[in-house]
Amino acid sequence: MTASTGRTRWGRTILAAGAALASALVVSFGLTSGVLAAQFVPGGVPVELTTSSAAVDGLGGSADTVTLADGTQLPIIALNGETAELTDLCATLAITPPIGPGFVMVARAPARHASDLSLDATSFAGNAHAENIVIGRDASALTRSGLVGPSGGAGLQADVFALTDATASLLGVRADVFALDGLTVSLEEAGTTC
Amino acid sequence: MTSVPDRGGGTEPPIGSAADESGSEVRSQPRPEPDTRRQRFRRWRGTRPFWAGLWTLLAGLELALIPLSDIGQFFSAGQVAFTAALPGVVLVIAGAFMWFSPPNRTLAGLLAMVFAVASLVLSNLGGLLIGMMLGIVGGAMAVGWTDAPRRSRGRVRAVPDEDADRGRGAVPVVLVLVASLLTLPSAERADARGHCILSNPLAELAPGLADLGSDLLADGGLCLVDLEDLDSSVLSDIVATLDAGAAADLVDSISATDLVANAAGLDPVLVASVLDTLAGEISLTTLETERPTGTDLLDAVARSLPTAPIDLVSLLELVEDTLAGTVDASDLLARLLDLLTGIVDDVGTRPSPGDEPETPTGSATPRAVDATPTVSGPGHDDGHRAPSVLSILVLDTLDVDTLRYVGIVSVPTGDGPLDVMRFEIDEIDASGLDLILPDGVAADFGIANTPGGSLHGDGVVLDCTRLALEITGAGGLVGLPLGLPIELTPSSPLLDVLGPILAVAPAGTVLSTRDVDIDLVTLSVQTLDLIGVAGGAS
């Protein structure tokens, strides 16, 4: 095949990029208005999360283990809520780029609604209230929420589960619908906490 | 000869040669010396959208490496992590195509842009926006790249058709991206609503239903945003529009999932007993394995509908009344029974649920106690399966109000039946909680009271294989050892002694204990409050 020297046609490039950026803006609007759900899979970098109250309807949970890149086995509790109402939510994610100083991404929202919310927590703290909670059910046979844990493992489930003044360190946050009403995201200097 | 100056994107003509439109001519010219590696690279770089591919590759790596940075976490997260890594992987492939298959650059660029935008939703906010922006820039540059010679005034007629075609090539870019945008929220909407109870065939059967309003139409089918949107006149219209043949089609098109999910006041337990009675006629696959929810029950009913001579008008009226809130649970059940008796004629000859053996959360062996065990309790429902590995529950102090020893119960686990001691307690107050949840694989997760924390619970059912504690106050019960550490197991002789005492403990008897250590199988609590609790690696 004949190889000829090419070039970039900037008009077409800008047109294509403009369309993509417009699409990204619409998606961003969908994210911030709660139409679309964002999905976070940080992969070993914990998200630190605080909330003044978290009310979950239909909770499933099970102990699980993740293996970090250095081979460390880290116990987590995997939680899944059919629906969740969170208030005064704040999340921080520490980012260390290959070059340059590290920084912290801080996301805040006054209230959020999520459905099919999944959290992989390495730790949490707060006050808890639960209704019809069962601790000790085969983690692969839970009937509340869609969580399927390790077969034979100890699972828990509750019709209602509420946490107040809660903090958590999360390795993963996922949701089918995550309404990020009033979301603000800022990049702040390393060490910033909620 | 027309030279082709570099106008961006880093594409440059080969240095040291008069760039010609024909690469073969360039190569045929005698060279003073063989190409240096740098020259060869520059020529290679100039004949493909090099910078577009580079940005796209970097975008893909950045997007993929975040979820893939911890491979163990990636696999444990499963499908979700896969979808998070997917945009990055596609971008890497697209970047490779830009480099090694330049004729496919437009498609690769389009895919790169679509997946870069999608990564905003799928992958950590587009790799913290960095990967998404790189992907958009790379994809757009690939679309914009051309190996056609620059149009000059003197040669404007030489390539007009090609340029015109490529000009139109930007149109699909816009269309594809807009389409992808419209698709994403649409899918989310459908998922969030999940209330489409009537599908396309009905729209053909009842054309007048189009008047219901455009908000009821979605994805080409008739989709009810919410069942509450139906008022009585609409229901009447539906019924009036249908002839006998259409009614059968309508029944086929009803998704009972939504019918039941929206039927307020439907008591799953009551309906479950009815359906158990009818189990010979209705396929209750779900009920056999799981605790029935309202959704399951309606599903079961719906599965029976297409083949059953059911009164459709009555069914719709029932739904209407239910939505209007003019029917209570017992009335609803009675009317539902009336409908179902059209399916089953011999309900009276069928064994009632009470004649069937209780579905096992466990069969009790009334050893040491003469009480018939009650096996109901929160979480002890049909299909309950206990974990194969036991949790450890430790409490500094535990006060129990009205504890009753039920007996030894055999509960199902993944490794076969397990004999456990079952206790029912009206109310508990505890401090110094330390609960260790094993995952059955490697590590344990602990949940513990923080200093000063406490636990309060009502309506407790405790299944355990070992209970060690020290009773400090017996609340008037005679025969309990006070101040001594005791340990109970299903085979412990001490259980034969203490079991009968605990089995008949009068209501209101409060036992105070401390240093409680339990090999926990299942703990179910109707209302549980934990003040000051923290979880983490134990």
Describe this structure in words.
Chain A is mainly β and 194 residues long. Chain A is 12% helix and 58% strand. Chain A contains one helix and seven strands. In chain A, strands 2, 3, 4, 5, 6 and 7 form a six-stranded antiparallel beta sheet that branches. The model of chain A has no long low-confidence stretch (mean pLDDT 83). Chain B is α+β, with helices and mostly antiparallel strands and 538 residues long. Mean pLDDT of chain B is 66; it is low at 1-28, 71-76, 153-232, 246-268, 270-309 and 343-378. Chain B is built from 20 helices and ten strands. In chain B, helix 3 packs parallel to helix 6, helix 6 runs parallel beside helix 10 (170-193) and helix 18 (312-324) packs antiparallel against helix 19. In chain B, strands 4, 5, 6, 7, 8, 9 and 10 form a seven-stranded antiparallel beta sheet that branches. At the A-B interface, strand 1, helix 1, strand 2, strand 3 and strand 4 of A face helix 3, helix 4, helix 5, helix 6 and helix 7 of B. Strand 1 (7-8) of chain A pairs antiparallel with strand 1 of chain B.
